[in-house]
Structures are given as C-alpha cells and as structure tokens.
Amino acid sequence: MKKSNILLIWSLAFASLFACAPKTEPMSTYPIIPAPVTITDASGHFTINKDVQIVLVGEKDAAAKAAEPLRLLLAQAGLEIPFGEDPNAQDVIIFELNPSLDIPAEGYQLDIEKRKVHIKGTDASGLYFAVQTIRQLLPESIEGNTAVEKLYLPAGSIQDNPEYAYRGMMLDVARHFFSVEDVKRVIDLISKYKINYLHLHLSDDQGWRIEIKSWPLLTRIGSRNEVGGGKGGFYTQEQYKEIVAYAASKFITIVPEIDMPGHTNSALNSYGILNPGITVPEKTAKPVDRGDLGITEPDDKATPYHTGIEVGFSTLDTDSPTTYQFVDDVIRELAEITPGPYIHIGGDESHVTALEDYIPFIEKAQAIVTKYGKKTMGWDEVAHAKLLPTSVAQFWAKGQNARMAIEQGSQILVSPAVKTYLDMQYDSTTQIGLHWAAYIELDDAYNWDPLAMDSLAFERKSILGVEAPLWSETVTNLEEIEFMTFPRLPAIAEIAWTPTANRSWESFSKRIAAHGKRWELMGVNYYKSPRVNWDGEAK
Ligand code: ACM
C-alpha cells in the first residue's frame, strides 16, 4: 500500500474515533442557570440512546409529572424513551419521589453515572427542576429539535434546592393585552429558569382582562381598550383556567391581580356606580361608544377610556356598599378559578384615595380574600393597613413600607423597581421601555441582594421571595416581551434560587452567553447586552 493511502486510512480512523467521542468535560463547567448549590464532578458520561428507559420509583403518579417533560424533550431530539419497571436495570433514568428523603422542598439530588441517572426529590417540583438542570447539561442543539442518535450527560452529582420559596415574574396584560398563546410562550421560557410563580396583572386603568360573570360589562366595555386606544381583549374564565393548567404542568402557580382601589378606570368605565366622581385626564380620554357595544342603558357616571400612561387619578368609591359587593363578587369568582394560594389586590399609587379611606378599603379587601380561602398580596403601600401575618407586601418602591409590613408579622416579596422591573430600559438607546426608576443593564439586574435592599437590611425570614415585573405601557407584542425579559429574567432567577455565596457576575456573565445560543435556536428575541461576550465558548 502506498504511504499516502496508509496515512489516509489512519487519519480517517482517527477522525471517526473523535466524531464518536462524547464531550466529557467536568459537570461543574456546564453553564447551568440558576447555579446549583453543589456540583461534584466524576469521570465519564451517561449515554442517552434508544436503549434507555425511564423508571418511576415511590410516588409514581407525581413523579410522572416531572418525567414526562424529560421524555418529551428527548423525543424532540428523535429519542423515543419508553417507561420501564426495573430500577436495578442498566441504562435507566430513575425518577424517585419520596417525601421521607432528606431533601428540602423543591430540591433535588441528581446523580449521573455511566449506566444510570438517578433523580431524587421529596416533591414533584424538585424532580421537575432537576429536569431543567438536565436540559442545560444536554447540548444546545436540544433546543432546535434536531434528531440525533444519542446524547451524552456528564457524570457527576448535583445537590440543589432554592434559596427562596417564591421565584416569580409578573406580566402586565392590562396596559397591552397578550393572547393565551403569548402567555404560554412566556411560561415555557421562564420555567427553564426554575421560576415557580407567574403574577398576572389583570386590570388597570386602561383595560379589564378577566371575565367576571356577575359583572359582565367589565369585559363588554372595560376590556375594549389599551394604551394608545387599541382594541384590548380579555381572557374568558375558560381561557384563564387553560393558562392556570398550562402553568401548573410546568410547576408554575398563577397569582391573579385585580388592582384596587386605584388603577381602576376600566371598572369605572364599565360601571359608573363604582365611581365616586373621578375624571380621566382630558388629553388621554376616549369616549365609550355604548350604542356600538349594544348597550342601551345610559350611565352618566361611567368614565371614558384612558388611552395614556398617567397613573394615580382613579379610585373606586370606598364609601359605597356596592363597591364591596363588587370586590366580593370579583374575588369570589377569581378564587373559584385560581388553585394557587394568593390573590393580589394591588393597592399601589392610589393617589386620589384619602389614606383614611384607603386603609379600611385594604382591610376589607383582605378580609374578602381570606373569606374565599386565599392569602392576600399587595404592593408595598398596603402596609399602611393592618395586615394579616399571612398577607404578603410586594416591595417595589419604599423600604419604609416593607419594614412596616415586616413589623406587622407579614413577609415581603422583593421587587425593587430599580433592579427587577423588566420594563426599565437597558440604557438610553433602548427603543422600548421606560426609565423612571433606572436604566437596568444585565449586570445591574444581577449584582444585588434581596437582604440588602433597604438601609436597615431585611432578615432572611422576612423574605418570601423575589419577583421581576414586566409592565406593558410600552411593550406591545411577544417580541418586545422577550427582548425586555431576556437576559434579565435569568439574572433575577439566579438571585432567587442560588445562595449568595455561590453567585458571581464573572461566572454568570460567561454562563449566560451559552443561553444566548439556546435562545437563538428557540427563536427568542433577546437583548445582546454589551456586558457579555456572546460568542464565548459554549457547551
Ligand atoms: C407599581 O409599579 N406601581 C407597583
């Protein structure tokens, strides 16, 4: 044989050897967000191919809720993995749900060996979050529905559990309305970062977005507007239930908000009887054409639509018994279709409600939420009222209000506008968004700590969690939602999940670059922050 042919054969053999060689870099180098509590490396890898089976152990029905998403993810890559029965077999992925294990709520233990993956947890959410970690241990091509023969997972162990029980995002569907499909897409994207609450801001001055059967004009009139005077929209109760169920399948709980007693013009333009006599700022007022909507009864006290973004001009009539009947009906209907523990009553920026009226209003609304078996959430101003220990104040503006809530025995949800508001512009060149609180670049969104957001510092036990709100005065479609949310939401998710000692911007800024490649495959319109080297080496 000629020397050149021998060389060719050798080099082909060599190339094919490398083509088959899996990536076996240490597990601790994979760009997992949020960063896990502990990662222990081991040598080798687990191969996922058509010979692998998923086996459920312990509380099998609950474990299946976490295993099914992994099965579907692998099927996306052309790997149809069946369920098997024998946990002692080789080449198995075991989901073990056992409440008596020593693993904290929502936590998991993930052990990857050469012939076995073992995921353990004390609840189904822990197992589901382990699946989100596994997703990030798989190559980025998994996000592109590319069919493959096999996939590799690095050997090693992860012990992980969240720092905070509540890790949330808020979507304002009132200033601009977003479809059920858009909300589902948001749920898909945030669930990858172990977010477990989605707060929906369902009513504001510009629009009412949820069907309330006992007050039908809220949707017949109040929903048909948004910022700029567009057509708006609303969710029927069936559609809302569909969102709730979809979120639950990804271990996300919906927190519905009806903002009261301010931010209520969409109720006041539906029912004048709720209006103590407020008017809409003239330059943003748009008449309601009741005739066009087939409503023949006149209503002189009903307000026009508000098409602008000014806040603080509206209030419910806090003296009227009809108002409390309204609040009772709305919360009753909402509680009936909301399996989660919280109903959010807003309470922010009620600038035209006198404090002596505001306080009893909040206390009555809180009592109604309690009567229907739910816990109250409200923006930090609600701390002026007497709060129940089960109520949660959402700290967005004033540390003093947050402290007032804590002194009453309530917990706070930490959402400082200057750090977590996703509608704040990244910098002065950002085309959408506002900047009344701050410009928030990615490192600003990352480099802070919930315990240190007040000059007096909060105690750990006073903090329920962290939420990143996306207000939609300037955000009009899904592309814009994605642009403002990514990459900042993963930064907030890491603050909420990962212990402070494990967090560093240096590490996060490298890991997030790999997520940019995944978002490209998923078609996510993310902001390419100049603080990140997006072309950096990724897995
Ligand atoms: C708020 O940003 N008004 C809670």
UniProtKB/TrEMBL annotation:
Residues 164-499 form the Glycoside hydrolase family 20 catalytic domain. Keywords: Glycosidase, Hydrolase, Signal. The keyword Hydrolase applies. Its EC number is 3.2.1.52. Residues 1-21 form the signal peptide. Gene3D superfamilies: Chitobiase/beta-hexosaminidase domain 2-like (3.30.379.10), Glycosidases (3.20.20.80). It catalyses: Hydrolysis of terminal non-reducing N-acetyl-D-hexosamine residues in N-acetyl-beta-D-hexosaminides. Coiled coil: none annotated. InterPro entries: Beta_hexosaminidase_sua/sub (IPR025705), GH (IPR017853), Glyco_hydro_20_cat (IPR015883), Hex-like_dom2 (IPR029018), HEX_bac_N (IPR015882). Residues 30-160 form the Beta-hexosaminidase bacterial type N-terminal domain. It holds the Pfam family Glyco_hydro_20b. PANTHER family: BETA-HEXOSAMINIDASE, BETA-N-ACETYLHEXOSAMINIDASE. Belongs to the glycosyl hydrolase 20 family. This is beta-N-acetylhexosaminidase.
